Amino acid sequence: MYMENNSIDGYAEGEEPLHFYYKKGEFRQYYDNDKMPLRDLAEGKGLPKRGLFRVLVSTKTNRAIFTGMIMCFALVLALNFLRGSANSGTVGGMYCELTAFSFQEQLFASVEIRPSYLTKKHHRPGPYGQKLFTAAFSVTNSDGELSEKSEQEFLYDSAEGESRFLRATFGDYDAGRVSCTLSLGGETLRLSASVQRK
Question: Which DSSP letter does residue 47 get?
Answer without folding.
Answer: P
